[in-house]
């Protein structure tokens, strides 16, 4: 991408409204998930297997609420074009896309662990301990794997996320210039035009 590209921004009224709404949502998300996490660690009776994975998901939501601002800033929704210039925008775009992917995948994997945990508790109620789902070491290991998988999964965004302009509008998107990359990363083919980049 040419670093001399000018990045568009929203009007003052739209930016003000968007900042207000985003600030409220981010504050509620951050505060709520932080309270959930603090309550879990301060109350021993709440440290059940399911709640452990819920807290793992809450931590990922805290992570997401802190870094989603980068994408909005790059796309000109929060600041004027003079603050997000051609040198910093690509970096913020990559970090924003990567952090959002990590946060979302950790949440999804945590939900999978919760479903699996409840499946064992309901179908094999007397064997739950033998499966190890109630052991703290097993919970911690599974939660750690959700983060490791998510951190690895998001790496392509560091390589392919770019700031693009479509109809004079600025967007932070993953630009897949290779059909092979699209096929491997997404698990199936999105485009039948190998010569055209794919934007997501």
Automatic annotation (TrEMBL):
Membrane topology type: Multi-pass membrane protein
Subcellular location: Membrane
Domain of life: Eukaryota
TM region positions: 17-41, 53-72, 105-126, 138-160
Keyword Transmembrane included in the entry's annotation: yes
Keyword RNA-binding: no
Annotated SUPFAM superfamilies: Family A G protein-coupled receptor-like
Stored PROSITE patterns: G_PROTEIN_RECEP_F1_1, G_PROTEIN_RECEP_F1_2
Pfam families in the cross-refs: 7tm_1 (PF00001)
Domain G-protein coupled receptors family 1 profile, chain residue ranges per copy: 32-200
Key words of the record: G-protein coupled receptor, Membrane, Receptor, Transducer, Transmembrane, Transmembrane helix
UniProt similarity note: Belongs to the G-protein coupled receptor 1 family.
Protein name: G-protein coupled receptors family 1 profile domain-containing protein
The organism of origin for this protein: Porites lobata
